[in-house]
Amino acid sequence: MLQIQHYFPQLTETQLQQLRALGTLYTEWNAKINVISRKDIGNLYEHHVLHSLSIARFIHFRPGTEVLDVGTGGGFPGVPLAIMFPEVRFKLIDSIGKKIKVAAAVAESVGLKNVQLEQLRAEDEHGRYDFVVSRAAMSMSDLVKLVRKNISKHQQNAMPNGIICLKGGDLQAELKPFGRSVELTGLSTWFSEEFFQTKQLIYLPV
User: What's the CATH number for 2-205?
Assistant: First the structure.
């Protein structure tokens, strides 16, 4: 939590309370339904919450923005982003029902009013959104094929609508089909922890 306060000093007391609650909630739920590796639950704030919030360092979503989180798992990056942007509407989808159950319970427990959750595959989602976000749910080419239909033509943010994806490792081959249209940012640009040295944010305007 101290890391998050360090990198996001503008957080309100309500947001801090919501973020603090995530530690207990995810630890309790993870003991029942495994949505985070048992070995990694101790790193929840750095590896999952702060990692998700790197999107908030890249873009400040304007109030009224619509965001779709594809393959949200237990609620990442959608739940931390919904805490960060209370005036932005988020829809979190995942094909695995028990993961959506955990994300929904966590969102309800911290009082998030700007989140909709549904057990759904990306190909079956037909809504339109300003941005699609995802955390290493699938290859970039597969993701683009599935969600291109979901990107709204109406622009309301400083950046063009598109896809924002968090991934790690060598992405050169995976991103080659997109040429210069794709923008890559190393998360070590914003965060000093060793975990972020190999992590990247991909932005593809659509």
Answer: 3.40.50.150
